[in-house]
Structures are given as structure tokens and as C-alpha cells.
Amino acid sequence: MVRPSVNTSIHQFQIHNGATFVKVDKVDIMKDNSPALLFHDDGGGMDPDGIRKCMSLGYSSKKSNTTIGQYGNGFKTSTMRLGADAIVFTRAIHGGTATQSVGLLSYTFLRMTGQDDVIVPMIDFDISGHWAEPIINGSQDDWSSNLKTILEWSPFASKEDLLIQFEDIGRHGTKVIIFNLWLNDEGIYELNFDDDDEDIRLRDEANQGGLRKLRKSVAELQSHISYCIRYSLRAYISILYLKRFTNFNIILRGKPVKQRCIADDLKYSKVVIYKPQIPIAKEVSVHTTIGFIKEAPALGVCGFNVYHKNRLIMPFWKVTGDGSSRGLGVVGVLEANFLEPVHDKQGFERSSAFIRLETRLKQMVMEYWRSCCHLVGHNPPGIHNLQKDRANSQASIRPAANIQNKMAKEQNDGLPKGSNEALNTTQDSDVSGKSFVDRICEENIELFMRCEEHAKNEIELQELVDSLEKELKEAKRKHAQLLLAVEAKRKQKNVN
């Protein structure tokens, strides 16, 4: 898919190394005229040691709380998801030494040669002088063997062709070419480069319903950003980062991607502050912008766009149940840095903090819907039942009015003075149904809130139980240690 692979690759090549741009484009392989993906940035690049760490499995030097990509497999998994092979060209200046390196990560090479281990051939050059001087780490034969493997299994047939690839990198930067792109079940490339010259699309998702005439409502839904991100790389990149860049551009097929902030497009928006209960010293406040999409109530798009350290993790996450009209058109945006993303950055670990956030977002939707749904033409909660009850009541009152009055008169004979007035008032309230329906609606909302509160308390109690069990275990351990110490002293005393 475009979403969990191409954008992950983008994140590997930019920003944190001082890049001002990353280019994503289609290139044609000269050997067989097949399409390939190109990623090119002007960041700090990688020295020989850096490219080996990048292209080895499981290594990562990112330990900062402000970055993602701490597992060390993002580059490998994202490139191999797009195609079978990837070749990396990189230049860097470290410690006064300018170097350039080439590395090949090729599934085709490993499979066709029957390798038992993952072999990643690499060659390095010192370019501090007037020409590229090979850097020999092992032996000359090893260097030459790596060069031969790269030339045999990459799109480039000669050493000169490899060196030409560095010409547009400049003094520092990185270029990655992913080739032998994957095919779908029909034998066609998964990535579609033809439908839009300024975009890269996921073929199977983009073609859903494309051959038949769509109803207007369906067409409008499929043109919304919440649907376009399923197949369009340009659409997804536009909301990939929460904060707008001031000195960085993502250039897709020659045209910069315009960043889009979902929160800016909402109408009747408000900011709700949520303070998660997490075991850290500093108090955390999460500001959630919530409102209606511009197309409400025509489109029922809803959900929360949840970011982590500026990067979109869960787009249009629907927290309300299916089949309910409540919450339709309500969209929110928040940054949840207190949660831990899962390995592929397409979700969060289902921790107690995540469950509490989900519960709070449900409450947030219901509270916003109850107070603002009328602004876009929806009836407030309970109004439909109230109107229905009123209509039924009025229909039944007219033909039975005389009978009711007669029965009321017979039943009230002999009652104390003033009782009739009180009884009539009670009957009017019951017949209209107004106070009864309103009370039921309020009770339903109150019960929902109490249910959510009980779920929250259950989580907190479970955490308390876990904590007490740990303390009990530690106390038992200390108790055992004390018994051993007492026994040792007793034996020592008996010896003396």
C-alpha cells in the first residue's frame, strides 16, 4: 500500500539531518525499461559506517524522545514492501573527510544465488581529493567482489554508471532507487504512475468503482481527503505532518506537496484539553481540536487524526460505534506523544493509556454532538422521539377528549378541593410526553457517561492491583532475605 510504505521511506531520508527537500519520483531502468521509485534528499548523508548501520537489520541510533524510527528496520521493511531491490547512493563529510558510498539491498540477488545469510554488498570512496579513491576496509578482492555483485544485480552496468549517480547529489545527501517493483495478483504493478502525472497511486484502491458510474453521494465521499489517502500518495503526504514546514519541501514528481491542516478546515470547531493519567513526573496536556467537516451534514466522514511527534499515525480513527448517526461529520485532530506507536507506525500499542484516550474521545464526540449538532441541521438527541410522541398524543387526544373528561369527572367526584387541578396538571405532562422524553434522553447520556467512568475506574483498579502484586512480590522477596539473614545470625551465634 502507498500509505504504510512510501511515506515511511520518505521519513527515513530527511528533516533530522538538515535536509531542505526530499524528492520522490518515478524513473525508468535502462536495462529493461521498467519503472522504479526514486527518493533523493540533500541532508547530511551517511559515511561508510553510517550506511552500514542503516542497511543492517535491527540497528538504530535514534534514542531521542522527539523522533520516531527507533527500531532500526524502517528502511529495510519499507523499501522491500515497495520492490524487491534497492540501491543507495550517499555522500557525507565527517571529520574533515568527504566520502561517498554505494550499497545494494537485493532480495533478487539473495534468492537467485541461494544465500543463507543476508549479504549487502557495499563499496566506499574517499572524495576529499580530486578524484574518487576506493576505501579498502578488508582486501582489494573483497572490494572488487562487492563492486561486481552490485553491477550484476543493480540497474547499472559499469562503475562509471554508478559514479554518474552522484553528480546531482552535491557535496552531501542521499539517493535511493527502489527497482523490481511488486506486481498485484493480475500481474500489473501495484503502484500506478499513469493516472496522474503529479501523483503516485495505489492501483487496486484507486480503481474501486472506477469503471462504473457512481452515485453523487459516493463520488463526493471518494473525493474527500479521508478516502483519497487510501490510494493517493500526494493526498496522504499533505496531512502526514501536523506542523507546517518553513524550510523543507516534499517534491512529488516535480511538484511540491502542499501541506494541509485538517483542523483549519473544520467549522464550529473548539479546543478540548485532555490530561492523560500517565506515570511521568511532568504533567501532560493534550489539546484536541474538534469540529464539523465543511461538507457536513451531506457527508458522514468522522474520526480523529492522531499524530505522534508530528507524524500521522491513525488517520480518521472512528471511536463511535457503527450504525449510529451521532458523531457523523465530527472530526478531531490531536498529538498523542504519551502513547507508543506499534512497529509499522500505523497504530498505537493498546495500553491502558490508549484505552483511556479512546474512552475520553468517545465522550468528547458525544458532548460536542449534544451541544453543536443543531448547527449543521441535525436534530438534538431525543428530539425525534419527542416529536413522534407529541404527534401520537395529539392524534389520540382529539377523538377521546370527551370520554377522558367524563371519566375524569366521575373519578374526581368526592376528592378534596384542589386535587382535580393537580391531577389535570399531571395528566397534561404525561400526555405531552415532553418532560418524560427529555428525562429519558438525559438519563441515557448520564448512563453512557457513567459506563465510561466505570470502564476508566476498572482500568485504574487493574493498574492498582498490578502495582500491589508487584509490591507484594517485592515484600516477599525481602521477607525471604530477612529470614535467611536471621537464620545465618542464629547459626553464627550457636557456633560461638
What's the CATH topology name of the largest domain? Answer: Heat Shock Protein 90
Cα Rg: 33 Å
The outline comes out as flat
Query: How do the helices and strands follow one another from N- to C-terminus?
Result: HEEHHEEHEEHHEEEHHHHEEEEEEEHHHH
Provide the low-confidence segments as ranges: 58-72, 415-434
Number of helices: 14
How would you write the strand order of the largest sheet? 6-5-4-3-7-2-1-10-11
Structural class call reads: alpha+beta
Total number of β-strand segments? 16
- Integer average pLDDT: 83
Oligomer: single chain
Which CATH class of the largest domain?
Answer: Alpha Beta
Sheet of most strands? 9 strands, mixed
**CATH architecture name of the largest domain:** 2-Layer Sandwich
Straight-line N-to-C gap: 78 Å
What count of structural domains?
Answer: 3
Helix content: 25-40%
Q: Report the portion of residues in β strands.
A: 15-25%
Biased composition (Polar residues): 421-430
Domain Morc S5: 231-369
Family: Belongs to the MORC ATPase protein family.
Region (Disordered): 411-430
